[in-house]
Amino acid sequence: MNKKLSQSQLIFRLNGETVNIPAPNGRRLSEILRKELSAQDVKIGCNAGDCGACTVLVDGQPVCACLMVAEQAEERDVQTLTGLHRDDPITRNLSESFLNHGSAQCGICTPGMIVSATALLRKNDAPSEDEVKDALGGVLCRCTGYRKIIDAVMNAPAIAEHCNGDVGESVRHLDGRAKVSGELRFGDDVASKESLEILILRSPYHHAKFKFGNLEKYCQDHGLEVTLTAADIPGKNAFGVIPGFIDQPVFAENMVRFKGEAVAAIVGLASILSDLDLSKIPITWEVQSSHHSSSEAEKDGALQLHAGHKNNVMCRGFVSRGTAHAALKKADVVVSGNFTTGIVEHAYIEPEAGFAEVKNGRLEIHACTQAPVMDLESLESILAMHRSKIRIVPTAVGGGFGSKLDLSVQPFLALAALKTHKPVRLCYSREESMQSSTKRHPSNIKVTIGADRSGKICGFLFDGAFDTGAYASWGPTVANRVPVHASGPYNVNDYQASSRGIYTNNPPSGAFRGFGVPQSAIAQESMLDELADKLGLDPLAFRLKNALENGVETVCGQVFEKGVGIKACLKALQPAWIEERQKATEANKSSAVLKYGVGIGVGWYGCGNTSLPNPSTIKAGIFPDGGIRLHQGAMDIGQGSNTVISQIFARALGIPVSDIQLIGPDTDITPDAGKTSASRQTFVSGNAARLAGERLRRQITERLNVSEDAEFSFNGPELTVADRAGKHKLNLQNLPKNGEGFVFFAEETYDPPTKPLDKNGQGHPYAQFGYAAHLAVVVVDTKLGTVKPTKFVAAHDVGKAINPMLVEGQVHGGIAQGLGMALMEEYIAGRTENLHDYLIPTIGDVPNIKTLIVEEEDAHGPYGAKGLGEHVLIPTAPAILNAFKHATGSRLYEIPATPSRVMAALKQRMT
Amino acid sequence: MTVYSPSQLEDALNILRDPGFVVIAGGTDYFPSLKMGGSQDNILNVMKLPEMNTITFEEGGFRIGGAVSWTQIIKSDLPAAFDALKAAGQEVGSIQIQNAGTIAGNLCNASPAADGVPPLLALEAEIELQSAKRGKRQIPLVKFLNGIRNTDRQKDELVTSIFVPHPPKGMKSVFTKLGSRSYLVISICMTAISILLNGSGRIIDIRIAVGACSPVAQRLKTLEREMIGCRPNEVAICERHLLSLTPISDVRGSAVFRQEAVAEQIVRSLSRAVL
Ligand SMILES: Cc1cc2nc3c(=O)[nH]c(=O)nc-3n(C[C@H](O)[C@H](O)[C@H](O)COP(=O)(O)OP(=O)(O)OC[C@H]3O[C@@H](n4cnc5c(N)ncnc54)[C@H](O)[C@@H]3O)c2cc1C
Ligand code: FES
Ligand code: FES
Question: CATH fold of A439-609+759-910, please?
Fold first, then answer.
């Protein structure tokens, strides 16, 4: 050999600067960039090439840093978002364009997107939509539905306005800048360098008994710091979210109930953990039989997973009104169908991650979460530690969609930090994230609906079994919510809906955008189309005829005097409906293999907890120097609460949003704004922010004795207040300060007014509902079984659009998830535990979306606003399935409608 | 675990005498299949070998270097008979994957769903392997692929190039892939067809290769034979033509579905090929 073939040093240029590091010995470039070179702007979503979050430019070409042996970068130019944003005007313009379109929601995909798009724009400054898709097809985004990313890269006219951010204005995301520059720090970006790593040992079996051998010895032999098992838990080895259903162990004891369940953890240096041969860990397993569907688990004699839950029934939900059975007997037409939906994975691009340390005798946890205070309360119980000793500092969250409401890394981080007294970090691999995080409940639903000849609904029966997996998580919420919503937003007098959550050996099902309502809407909206068909009525007209209205009782007997917006949504869709149906009929005349169809889907969703208190508290104050601080504790997981709640507060106080200093959730300094779930933040925390803003305003107007609508202008310590009577000046520095240094201070709480449900589910479950109707246009390849949505029109009643650009962003993202659920997403434990086999929509799958914002003012929401986060995906899947029926004449009863299933359904119709 | 990045083939082959080495090209198959705990093997990086990085034209055909990436192929100026291979390349994963991943890696990885295989079968490609001990050999691609994740490559051999004999002048080719989404998707099934017609539109030469319907992608020889002398739309595809296929049922699709879809793909590919 004529020259040294392996180098002891690796030299390359990173963002223009030469770096020289010891040979990484075959490690991934991504790992070197993040761990050795502090390039935390390179994100890791999968470590397998499937998500593109780690995209960097190597000699100008986009590649996945996670798939590149670091040594292959030798003598080459590596650029990441940070460097590009600093050095390349193309990237900087692109970042601005992302802000102008709201193209970064959670922001975890943004570095990969902008880096990939930079490579495109360097060679093509005016790309077509298809060229953008080709360039970004390798980067997954779970939040945005991609459309706003396409707009940003094509440099479409800005949506964001130059404005004060008043309610109703499309101000840019207030926290957007750090997302588009690569500075934002997520769960795996905050650990101190010397942190020990944690490795969780998980069950390879769905159901098994197990015993440890000498773990301590294993630990010593391998130079590990400590091991953790159930025996190390000082408090209760149980977590969960619903009182009475706290049934999931942090570490399983003697028995595991699902594949991927944690049994132990080992803590040590990263370099040691990465080389461990886990097959040598002393554990013996005794595999048990397992069940994977609610129908198996419910059978008499099926192995019972939890004591006290016969037939594995976790809990039931029920709503009844009028006489459903009798009404169905009277009905002129009746339709009935059984629907099955699969397990759906949240597939946020950021796996669960965090960092913990013990600081001044207190435990600090920095992790991605949707519910910091719930995390605190759970840890209090697990650690048997007073809450004053625990601080939760949420990091940025790279997508949540419900699953980051539950604990994940937090107890492991806590136990490890407390046992080692050293800083520790933990980031789930994609596989363990998918194995262990909660899922959307798979369902088996039977719906029977009748109508009289005039087209009025007459009798409605619903029965749904929801597979809640091995532990309860949010299963009880699903069981409760579904019967309340299963009618859809219609006037149904004779109604009976029952639901039950069933334990199985699948991963725990929990909260996922809609808490079971998307599944029930599929069955219910499909059957409404069948009814319309039988009656010979136009599906939209049929829905309009039965739609709920102001002053009409819901199936829970609740009456809303204002704000019932479903008719307005349906009417908004009417022009597109007529036009698109005609176009499809026309196109089908000359098309034998490709069939076009247009379908509609409708949804409603109650914002906030079902008949339970769920207060939010917002604190704000004004400093002597004129600084206005808003302690905004509602976790922004990409949905935009940092921006929306600030806008509401700014309106109430009467200032531009740019005056606000935003302080995020931190259990030490920011009060509890409740969890980011149930589409409650805009409504509930928004109202608390409104109250806080109003109170501050009142304090000032009262102090100066000016009219209530006086105008404020803050200019350093000098506050100028103007009303008709003239101008007043107030020097803030002369005012007394409270303990936190504020001269004006407000802390306000809002809790939505609800009333408990009786045994028939009658009561006031929610103070407000939001309404939605989607129209989907699809083309079905009747010989290959592909279903391609080509257009969506989405009408959403949001009461008042606080920020229309953000409303659109939510709608797009929800539609993309609904599309994925309808057509491709199916989690199978042991088989689709990665983003290679578990398919979520890419940029090529989401067609043009037209959003129609409907504003039927709500009686309680801030400035009439309603929640939106979950509404956006409920109507999508039914709209697609109804469009499929329109295109082909076949109804799909099982989703996801993969090509294989579609062909089977088409064939069944022919035989 | 040390990484060797030789710039001379001779060195690379010598390194491979040591069985403790694994070859890495683009790494796009290597890393995803890495198990927890990592690999103890040392790494031979072939990306710095100049002779493996080019596509050359020689007597008898084209030689695609054993480290040529998908992007390189897509951007190369090649005869229409390579269109299927380029189209396959454009459907491999994403731009990121195409920039890093190599054709040789795709073949060596020997996945039943490797998109590179059907077009290369339709091009009647051959694989050139070299080792320090036994020198050079060149074998047809069909002989190289033995089964799922199983090739004829010996541990000390490198795939130094892929040789494609000159396709007949005027030969066209198409590639069709079916997946459940756009981009980043492994084929449910795929078809590559190379076709040559005479002046009156009849088939003189045809190669039809289908993938993901058997452990190794394969040519449909019965069908090919029957089509010679016919017009492309004259032969109805029936069960008899697909007897050699053994599709499986998995998350991507059922066996029955695959068999039917591939028949439809062939029909469509034929009509596209003669457009
Ligand atoms: C996200 C993603 C999407 C993908 N999509 C597709 C797709 O759509 N279609 C598809 O077909 N594939 C796909 N793949 C698989 C993969 O990208 C391709 O197979 C690629 O061509 C492999 O090339 P590579 O250079 O990266 O291989 P490597 O990972 O470097 O190597 C693969 C194997 O080949 C061996 N090897 C490589 N080169 C040589 C050589 N010259 N001599 C001897 N042995 C060698 C290696 O030892 C290894 O065993 C995808 C992969 C990812 C991660
Ligand atoms: S982390 Fe590299 S592609 Fe997902
Ligand atoms: S913004 Fe794209 S993943 Fe969240």
Answer: Aldehyde Oxidoreductase; domain 4 (3.30.365)
